[in-house]
Structures
1.
Amino acid sequence: MKRIKSLIAIFFIIVLVFSGTGCITSKGSLFDEVLSADSDISSEEEDAEEEEEITGLTIKTNPSNADVYINNSYAGESPVTELLDSGNYKISVKLEGYYSTSEWVNYSEGENISLNINLEPIIGYLNISVSPVEAEISTGWDDLYEGINELQIGSHIVQAELFGYEKWEGQVTIHEEKTTPLKIKMKPSVFDISNIFLSRQAFNPANPAGLGESKINFDVNTYGQGDLKIYSDQGKQILKQNFPYFDTWDQSFVWDGKDNYGQLVPDGNYRVVISGKDTDGMNPAKKETYITIDSSLIIRIRTTLNGTSGTMFCPSPDTLPPGSFQASVNTFGHIEGENYRFPFTANARIIPDKNLEITGQAGIVILPETSESYYFSVSAKSVIFNTKISDLSWYLKGAYQNNHETDSQTNFTGMSAGLPISVSLLPVTLVLTPEIILSPFRVTYEGTSYNSGFYYWGYGRAALIFDIGSAMLGFSTAMRITPYNLTINDYNPISAGVELNYLIPGTGIFITGTVSGEFGSSKYYINAGGGIGLIN
């Protein structure tokens, strides 16, 4: 384990070194061509945005949705923008529960003026007496206390809570500059157990770093004691956990799939029984639920930077099990003198159906002295078959990027279909993925024009993945294959990358480091970056 942690630390140091030495991690003008293509598109959009600049008088209020009047004529609810002739205008604002206010504005036709008005609430008072005095009192928005409290006029729902007592709730009306009395007397609770919730209804104890366990949550409403027992399908008790003293609402127990003797239990359905009583041994309560141990539910971190889960440049056939999800944010880039290019990407994997995984991606590219380029994609992936050593899936992907020329992430605008297949000899997995794409645009690093219409080409993708405990190390590559160009050259570069994902034990949070690049016959450039994500 120490050796693995040392290797992880060395990898992230390498990522930092590449990030800080962009000027020596390129050769030729390939990076300049990519940057130029992005900048041209971004500049055109920036010019269009400047032409759409709106003029007029904009009136904003805090809070919003106030009634706005201009020279005593109703203009609508804030925020409001009006095109006016030159002149002096009286702006009046009204909102229930706030003092009305007015301001004068001198406006010249064609100007763009923003007027921000803060409204002052109308105040009254609430005098509270409560038993027991330790109760927590609030309106849901504001905390209240025994004695005099200042509140905005109008109706309010007041709540009082204290462990060991029934929740109290009532409605009061507050009037301007007047004091309203409120007396709260809470009733002791009768012991009960409620709100059983499992963090995982089914889980695989072999999954790493907290993903191979389930947290059993439940609530009690007063002081007492109890226990949690787990039974097999045959009714045999395999585990017992005592709770010697309940002194707060929230209770929990984390089950790692082991019995009383520390042995992993076999796959199957298990009954969870939670029992308890109050401190006097009275008012017994019991609740039950079921939990499943399933060794086929394998959760692995997979990068989604090319629009489908897998590695940076090669989708893999595996999907998350039902009930799981993955979300992450990533950035990587290249710095060369005063030029730089940094894509920022948000990604998510969800499982709407047992054999269907949906991956979504959206991002922007930060460029020098221009507005940002952007991109997004959505893909659907489903398993065709899986065995202990081999998996096969299909996926469909739709992608769009407003730079229609280069293809740095091999996630070009168009509709794609692929068939990832893998062979696994744990912890090593080899993945090969043929993909075909149909697009209204064409990849062109040389900046030449092309005829309008639809274009198609293929991607040859490959990856080598190492799943070692809490870490995933991946090597991947991709190249475009067209009927007219089967070679790697400066205008059809190959993409390749190495990545490391590390799951922080017990948190579900993982960190990512990446080093990647595009490589032609005489030109190349290298990116470095990282990210953070959550998997469950």
2.
Amino acid sequence: MCGAFVPQKGMVITMIKLNKFNKYMSESNVYGKLALLVGVLISFPLFIIPFYPDESRYLNAFLIPSGVAVVLGFVICIFAPRGEGVITEWQSPLQKGSLPVLFIWVFAFISGAFPFFIGGQYNSRIILALFEAVSGWTSTGLTISDVAVMPRIFLLHRAFMQYCGGLGFIIVIAMLARGKQSISLYNAEGHADRIMPSLKRTAQIITLLYSCLLGVGIIAYHAFGMELFDSICHAMSAISTAGFSTKAGSIGEYNSLPIDIITIVLMLIGSINFAALLLLLKGGIRKFFRISEVRLMRGIILVFLPLVSFSLFRDMNMGFGEGIKNALFGITSIFTTSGYSLMNYAEFPPFALGLFFVLMFVGGSAGSTSGGIKLIRVYLFIRIMKENIKKRFSPSRRITSPSYERIQGKTPIDDTLVKDTFGFISCYMMIYVIGVLLLSLTAESTLFDSMFEFASAFGTVGISNGITSADASVGTLVILMCGMILGRLEIFIVFIGVYTCARKLGRKLSPARGKYTKITNKP
């Protein structure tokens, strides 16, 4: 007769030690955990060395920055103060969450650049290595790389940065951090909805869903003739709506209709809110298609597809099927901010390029991997404008209660939401104008070229009209990097983080001003 399994003494001790370690790490300094996370992620491309032994000559290019990040993370975890800290009277929870978020992104940009620099890519020019890392982590896809000669280990590094940047670092940390700390970080990075009541469970579900979609994408690409390595890289970039490719001609180089369709599907999936995707997978099809963002996405495709197709039929003499395919792929790639292409976008007629330029500002759903203004803000902008026009033609006594559909159901459009929407769009356009003017100055390009290029960087779209190159000036690359960072982190979190950091430094440098009182909840 088989008895019940009884754990051995050594196993019990090991389990106790692991539990203590997990508890210690969950309560340790968040900056240390973030540095540890980046160090582990940087080492991921080393897994291809057993399959491609020639890539082992770049071992140190990844081990050094990864090792430094891991050691730094452990030092911070051990010696820095633990716990959530005290919220001061001058520091809101959003301000408190903004600093770690800003820290991990900046730390990731720098750490992600060093493998390129140490490995001798871009002639060891650190500004070019940093540009590629920023473009990767922000899932933009603007590149100065010659992928035809780039070693595979760096191609995988580029794709993996985009995959992780699309998911967001804080999703991973939310599975480890506890209490208000994880909540403030999650909200600060711009994630929209919680799928489960528990934030930790929400992060686990999102990561699992994201990983499953990656696996499906890899299998689908490989099944239709794409090499396994290329399948992994393209699936990572497509699901993160990023756009780095292992081919100079992007997806168009494969000249395969099934691969084109798979890419369109992956880009669309990546541009949809994770919570909405889960709702769809659970069978809530009707509720899914009632969501305002999904309806607007469908409307964009239905309106822009015939317009772009007509332009290709008339100005490029494309056949019906070829024109529809190129138009649908281009529209999907740009409004999802993916940046993949079937043909050089510079070859498109001016009318089609003008439509693509408009789509660069839209972006995907809030809480997805896409950049841009986001579908929900565009929908609210259109809806508010429509209500305003109707109000001018309606009787003065008429009272309206506009609303929009979210995953949670119908939600009223109140004054706070209107102010937040118009505030963000106004700030977005102001930064865009400043970026365009600065870019036209540093790149010495035409106004339209600067408008197109900065819209691509700021919206994290990743298509270029030639301004982005290894020969671009330092000023041009810095402006484009600033655009990518602001676009990925949605502007305000960067401003709040910089302001909070500056104020914190100011209080440390001025002890008399640095005194504050702990906030307590009085009955």
3.
Amino acid sequence: MIRKDIPIEYPYLHVPFKPGPGKRWHLQLWLGGTLLREVYASITAEPDAPYYFLNVRPFVGKTLTLAVPESDGLRENTLDGVIGGGEPERETALYPDLYNEELRPQYHFSSKRGWLNDPNGLAYHRGQFHMYYQHNPAGTPHGGVNICWGHAVSPDLLNWTELDDAIAPWRRDWEIASGSAIEDFEGRAGYGPGALLCAFTALGTFNEIPGREYASGGQFMAASVDGGNTFHLFSTQATVPTENGAGWRDPRLFRFGDGYRMAVYETFKGRNCVSFYASDDLRHWERTSRNMDLYECPDVFPLTDGSGETRWVFYGADGKARIGGFDGRVFTESGESNLLDYGKATYAGQTWSHHPQGKRVHISWVISMDGWTAEESFPDTPFSQCMSIPCELTLDCLDGRYRALRNPIEEVFSLRTGDGEALSVDAAGGTDIAIVPQSDMELVWDGGDGGTLTIHAGTHAIQYTPRERTLAFDNGEKALLRDSRLRLRVLVDTTTMELFFGEGVAATYTMHPNARRLAFDGGGRITGRRWAVRSVWPGSPER
């Protein structure tokens, strides 16, 4: 064992760590005989290692003890590298490259430190957009450990300020898995009108002993009365229990009529499903129905098209939007469905509750980079993964069938700088358009001789057949466009390329900066305009 007593004079402890997969140790934080927190992290005494940070604000003026019970492989002086200090900011000596690292996306959200994945608890509350997310603050792999709800706020869904993690595990065998948030306008849960309520899963965490996985605890609820910064559990018992420790998870709260509903990923008779629950007081829930063959991270909401027709949209983590109707108890599928994203990089998308203009805005976790596993995809960086650009979802009826479309929110236009650069290239023979990092392009194909156009995005190929108005993606999926004249918007960031065809058929791809490519093959000309896009990060010259 190694240990060190640290008088707490500042709100954070800054801990040197080694990014990426590798050996990790249990680092414990004690106040006297009380264990406050334990993280499983690749702590190190190596010089020039990056730092992550632990919030110790409630203990300023006290002395805490850092301990590593099983310290084989660590130097005796490893804990001497832990430093007390203020906010982790670019201006401080410990974080000189913050938001300027080689692989850092410049207008897509990523966490200051550590791993992120699923967006959680999306809600507009007290004049701000809140985004909680799956966060390992003490390492760049997910690893099934340390997972809590990270937290960021924004006035416009683009310029984000990262705050302290909002919900952390209170048991060593659980992690805080995905969920949702809504505002309790009437105060039905007992925390007063306007409290922000969240539902999440206490999921069994990683166990170093193979075959001895920890049991999950079910769906819990918590309330915030301070604007979403801290949450108080309804109870230490699950609001909606699981069965036999099964990993049922990802509760999605929403209002329906005068009551509340919750959609939860579960299993039934060996099959994946999403169950619907109903409640009037947000504390007592009744299961009303199941929809089979959906997996993880459900979302469900109504959309209304331009003619006033309303349909409900329901999907799981794969983003396959099922169109249908919902009567408050049962979702009935119409048989119409489409992917919200036809690429190979998005997962676990969710939408914001209570958008002030009534819009339905969607964001997804963008997984890894092409050719890399997720946990290897940001090598040697102190952060890993990012979110997609926020997109507005709309309902559209084409050839008598309803579908959900996805387009970047209007605020993305505000990130463009200057008047842009005119583009005009021959689309024959695999002609490339030079990639400019952090850019926004609007392109049109003139149709050539009416044959097929192939669009190359990195290593991926998409074929467009104008006679059929059909896009064929390299994952075997197809999508229909309204107009035979191909219009394309392309958003390029450090590791992402997001394509939006026609009226809102989206495809997201990830790629290392050295592998970025946008090319066309099929004849005719591609014309359009390209704008440089400014960084959204604090301290950036363009902000």
4.
Amino acid sequence: MENTFKYKLFKKNNFFFTFLISVGLLFNEPAFLFSIDKPGEHSFYSFCRDTSETDSTYKIEILIPTFLGNEKRNYYGNHAPSRLDLIWKVYLGKGKTVISREIGEKIWAGAGWTGQPLLVQEDTVKYLIQGAFDHFLKKINAETGEIVWQYQFDDVVKGTGTIWVNEKADKLADRYVILQGSRLGVENFLDSKYIPSYRAISYITGEEFWRLNSKWTDSYSRDVDGSALIINDMAYLGLENSLFTVFDPDKRKATIREGMLQPKIILERKLYRPEDVKHHNYNVVTESSPSLLGNRIYIASGSGHVYGYDMNTRELEWDFYIGSDIDGSAVVTHDSCIIVTIEKQYIKGKGGAFKLDPSKDPGDAVVWFHPTNNSEFAGWKGGVIGSVGINDFYRKDNYPYLAAIAGIDGYLYVVDHRTIEIGNNVLGPDSLTYYPTPKTIFKKQIGPSISTPIFAGNKLIIAGYHGIFLFEFNENLTFTLLDKFETTFEATPIAYDKKIYIASRDGYLYCFGNKKNSNK
């Protein structure tokens, strides 16, 4: 009740607060730092520091601005704790969602896939941005769990957003923009005329800037789960209608269309072929987030393709066809390759993970394939739903390049993604072609998972339906389970300043860390 009261009070006086902050900017000199060369300091990663004449400092730093941290989708935070002591938890709520006309509605609690929080620091205080199944996007104090504001969507919020820093904004409230998707709306169906399932919201105030109508296409979904990629103030995103969409996120470029203020669309490209629609029975849904490697943007689609969009020609010029459903995002490695995950669906062989070299023609691009076992769980038949986690950002000189894969088969696999097992080729998803396979470093049964494993230094964190597990490994590649916490997780965590933040299907958002007086 107290949080709700504060939010309503803030909303009531929002014009006054925004006016005060905006006036303050007139007397300050903003400084923005951007770099795309260093992992973690990229086109997303930015901060604004405004210093007044009295030397008082107001600083906003975007620490984790998008799903899996950066344009390579390989950054998860800085330092992890050595225990999973409960620091705090906050109830996110529950909400109704409609599966289909035939199945009807369900009540979901907490947050699920992909569900990774974003992280921002204001002066010395950190804040999380977390979507939830109660239909609200929330700004949460990362130190206490207190909810600062909430913005209501028309349905459950599943995916992770992206924070864009608008350098050209007229005022502070417009400078920090959250781009966030949701399911299609509990009052909507696939054939509804308008479904505004993607929106821009002020990080400062929680107020809406614009909303985007997700068009009806051959895909059987009009949700938005992916996280936008921002390059030179232009946004790139695959919607679940499987339109790769390039748009200008600036609200000043938005126009009234179909009765709502919508962003300026630069272009759209279909992430499927006509034959895919028939083969997948309209399941050509794109749920992944795009990644950047060189002059191409790579995005995986449920149509069975991994596409490369050339930023010069503005066309999909690279197409690696697998044929299965693909939910995970393409993760960029230090050796200019991408790793993509494969679900066991629409294919004769097994699902798993491919490492691809996109500098080569698609027919010659496979570096290796790592299969997982066929295993039915919650409607899935096997393979990998989440993305692959890699340690490339955190790796020390005497450590190998590791990739962590969490399967529906209940196993966590850790492989050396630079080393091939000599003389051991494996059958690919088509059950016809043999491929090299990477060297397995560690394998552990943890239960089924659709979450993405994350690294932080020499620690590995993986969540799943049986709980969250915290591992540590040394230079001899000996993995030790430090701690675990049992509840149901689908979301992906982040690790920062020796704390782990993750939302659960039990209804709560958790903060774990090291308590000084722990009984463990």
